[in-house]
Design goal:
Elements: H1 2-5, H2 9-37, H3 43-52, H4 56-71, H5 73-98
């Protein structure tokens, strides 16, 4: 949203850098959760799965573009919300069940 209203390339570049910093900072709790709840011999597998997430961005943008052209942006937003709930609920349930209790 900030990039869409930024005036000039320097403002857009600054907004992009701030956005990327916020995204990277938001990854810290995810990595911490993996380190706390996954056995050391299996951590590599989980971090490998986490590294796939950025690769899916291009495919989702392409699919979202087709859906937006065919049905409008409201359908894209609704599909994103539903897919995130469907994907995140089982993952968070497993993570909470496997988290060590002190």
């Amino acid at each position: 949203l900030v990039l869409s209203v930024a005036e000039g390339p320097w403002a857009a570049a600054a907004a992009f850098l701030v956005y990327q910093a916020i995204v990277k900072i938001s990854n810290i709790p995810v990595y911490s959760l993996v380190l706390d709840s996954v056995k050391p011999e299996h951590r590599g597998k989980f971090f490998h799965l986490l590294s796939i997430k950025p690769l899916t961005f291009g495919g989702s943008a392409l699919l979202g573009g087709y859906i937006a052209d065919a049905f409008g942006y409201r359908v894209v937003v609704a599909a994103t919300a539903v897919s995130l709930l469907v994907i995140a609920t089982p993952l968070l349930t497993v993570a909470v069940c496997l988290a060590p209790r002190h």
